[in-house]
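Reference record
================
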Amino acid sequence: MQISWFGYSAFRIQSEGTTLITDPVDQASKFKINKQGANIVVASHEDGDPGNAVSGTPFIISGPGEYEAQSVFVQGVTVNGATVYVMTIEGISIAYVGALKVRELTGEQLSALEGADILIVPVGGGPVCSAKEAVQIINQVEPRIVIPSYYRIAQSKGLDAVQVFLKEYAAPSEETDKFKIRKKDLPQEDTKVIIIKQ
């Protein structure tokens, strides 16, 4: 499996003939990815038209519930009027917290995300989780890998840099253009932070 980052909460997850894109449109920042091909689009908010931002005719996942498409299993749970997801791809569970502000997970939210192998979480503050709030979610979920999202990049304004998060969450970190992972290569002990360059 390979994970790439476009900026904000937009990721591409590629696996054996399947391409999944998360939040290709961000209404608050007017961000929209350049047309990319995808089989599946996962949207944490129901505003905008996420399917319009990608080419082809993807299966759109938007809202709570259980979904299956292209051998990808997805469970969506409501949080603060948006949806967080757990996606199972190649036997790896990915908890995806999109463009939203969450102070802590409760009840059904926590039982869905707890113990996920990978956690994608916003860290930039402002309209999304601050570094401190992101760390609280990480401590609840206890993933093996954390991928920060929605932090300051060239075209964004009013967000903290990823370094603010790295100071708040003292864990081994690594920077990469694209993140490739197999289930057997997941860290067994300490949680690792992977920063994917835009």
